[in-house]
Write a structure and sequence with these properties.
There is one protein chain. Helices cover 39% and strands 22% of the residues. The chain is an alpha/beta fold. The chain has a domain of 195 residues: Isopropylmalate Dehydrogenase. The strands form two sheets. Strands 2-1-3-12-11-4-5-10-8-9 form a ten-stranded mixed β-sheet, sandwiched between helices. Strands 6-7 form a two-stranded antiparallel ribbon. Helix 1 packs parallel to helix 11. It binds adenosine-5'-triphosphate and magnesium ion. Belongs to the isocitrate and isopropylmalate dehydrogenases family. Keywords: Manganese, Metal-binding, NAD, Oxidoreductase. InterPro entries: ICDH/IPMDH, IsoCit/isopropylmalate_DH_CS, IsoPropMal-DH-like_dom, TTC_DH.
């Protein structure tokens, strides 16, 4: 029997509700298998930890995670703590510490979900956005001088390295190659950003020669937002910089029906470190503690976690259970226009995974 060691970091707000739900579906899967089981270690890092200790996670926190098979993360964000502290102090620390340089965000319209684009059929919207997750606009390079004075100035420098761009392009081309349409759109802004984005385009063209069976095109990021709305079926796999993909993937999640459904994986493709899976939504303090949180984004993140572990059969079964449940409007949470509670949705998915009698 294989034992997978999973770290759970619920974080703040509704993270504390959806991560136990994610654990429950993993346990429900394990109950049907004599091949694998899951062992969880929970870490109470986040806003409450910050109030007690002045940091979002302990200095040796990464060491506690280093030998895990995967990390399941909820959300970091607290209305009383500035966002750059919650983000840089926890999530980004893990992403950067473990060089999870590929952020992968699948988007589909799940059965039963009322998506906002009226002219778009469910089969027209089936995307994976690959976000460069280690440098670019969020590299942390920059500074602020003369604070409070009329001559105050600040910079955030977009830093791109050849190594960084090559590895994300290669990852994206490989992912596109593994999907039926073998279609990649490289998102850029090289018309206005004349240095880093031009290098980005050049490297895309170089890496493309290694993947002759992948069709690829280039799209300016602003035009890409319009294309996602007007011609969703023309897209399949997309690769974009840290900032651009951040924005595009929120748009993608909204077009698929709800922020509460969308999953993501922060992947170290070289598998030197554990990868981290999380719903893309934030801590949503407005609905916390009321059982209103949609756990589907977490369940779908668990599907990605299972795929990463190589448990493809379990991943497929869980995805089928999720789709079975979303197809039933009586099991929709409030964000989807329904009245179901987190607990009811979780129980329904677990019941769907239980062996038939
Ligand atoms: P953060 O500051 O951590 O990003 P946030 O308060 O901005 O958190 P988001 O998660 O970004 O919240 O989501 C915006 C809104 O969408 C929330 O206020 C909430 O009402 C809704 N929402 C987000 N996730 C879910 C979910 N899983 N289930 C139900 N509603 C959700
Ligand atoms: Mg937010």
């Amino acid at each position: 029997m294989k034992t997978y060691s999973i770290a759970t970091i619920p974080g703040d707000g509704i993270g504390k509700e959806v991560i136990p739900a994610g654990q429950a579906v993993l346990q429900a899967l394990a109950a049907t298998s004599d091949r694998y089981r899951f062992e969880f270690e929970n870490f109470d890092w986040g806003g409450d930890y910050y109030r007690q200790h002045g940091v979002m996670m302990p200095a040796n926190g990464l060491d506690a995670l280093r030998h895990k098979d995967a990390i399941l993360f909820g959300s970091a964000g607290d209305p009383q703590i500035p966002d750059h502290i919650t983000l840089w102090g926890l999530r980004l620390k893990i992403c950067q510490g473990f060089d999870q340089y590929a952020n992968v965000r699948p988007t589909r319209i799940l059965p039963g979900i009322d998506a906002p684009l009226k002219r778009c059929r469910a089969e027209d919207l089936n995307w994976v956005i690959v976000r460069e997750n280690s440098e670019g606009e969020y590299s942390g390079v920059g500074g602020r001088v003369h604070q409070g004075h009329p001559i105050e100035a600040a910079t955030d420098v977009t830093m791109m390295t050849r190594v960084g761009v090559e590895r994300i392009m290669r990852f994206a081309f490989r992912l596109a190659q593994s999907r039926p349409r073998k279609l990649l759109t490289v998102v850029t802004k090289s018309n206005a950003q004349r240095h880093a984005m031009v290098m980005w385009d050049e490297i895309a063209a170089q890496v493309a020669t290694e993947f002759p069976d992948v069709r690829w095109d280039k799209e300016i990021v602003d035009a890409c937002t319009a294309r996602m709305v007007n011609r969703p079926a023309s897209l399949d796999t997309l690769v974009a910089t840290n900032l651009h993909a951040d924005i595009l993937s929120d748009l993608a999640a909204a077009l698929a029906g709800s922020l509460g459904i969308a999953p993501t994986g922060n992947i170290d493709p070289e598998r030197r470190y554990p990868s981290m899976f999380e719903p893309i939504h934030g801590s949503a303090f407005d609905i916390m503690g009321q059982g209103l949180a949609n756990p589907v984004g977490t369940f779908w993140s668990v599907v990605m976690l299972l795929e990463h572990l190589g448990e493809f059969d379990a991943a497929q079964r869980l995805m089928a259970a999720i789709e079975h449940v979303t197809a039933n409007p009586a099991l929709h949470t409030r964000d989807l226009g329904g009245q179901a509670k987190t607990e009811a949705v979780t129980q329904a998915v677990c019941a769907q995974l239980a062996p038939r009698r």
